[in-house]
Amino acid sequence: MTDDQVPTGPGTQTRRALLAGAGAVGAAVLLTACGDDSGDEPATPATGGPAATSGGSGAAAIARTGDIPVGGGQVYAAQGVVITQPTAGQFKGFDPICTHQGCPVSNVDGGTINCTCHNSKFAIADGAVKEGPATKPLAAKELKIDGDQISLA
């Protein structure tokens, strides 16, 4: 007997129907997870509150200057940027994707931007490789500082 010939009724289902139902549930969960939260503003990692918008330009601020520690930084994966402050008042932006095998970088600690997939480390000042296996630096991203607000340029 094939799947199509198996009787159905209370307590019985074909494997095809069962798999189709499971696939539909999986798709619904996936679509819900990827849904549009257009009413919600992104949160900044340091404050957990809504991201502010910079005055007049309309561009959403990713962080406040006070959120970025001197000699450190923050990863803003959802906004596609790592923001660092190598020296007081100097802010730098970098792509948050490791140049080794495309893993997202995970944190900024000890003066480096770190990818925990394979332990590559990048300089907070210029994105240069400090420790491999990566061999290429992180790509720079232009930032706009407006008062205490940081956004992508």
UniProtKB/TrEMBL annotation:
Keywords assigned by UniProt, alphabetized: 2Fe-2S, Disulfide bond, Iron, Iron-sulfur, Metal-binding
Coiled coil (residue ranges): none
Pfam families, sorted: Rieske (PF00355)
CDD domains: Rieske
Domain Rieske residue range list: 60-152
Residue ranges with Low complexity bias: 42-54
Positions of region (Disordered): 39-59
InterPro entries: Rieske_2Fe-2S, Rieske_2Fe-2S_sf, Rieske_Fe-S_prot_C, TAT_signal
Name listed for the protein in its UniProt record: Rieske (2Fe-2S) protein
SUPFAM superfamilies: ISP domain (SSF50022)
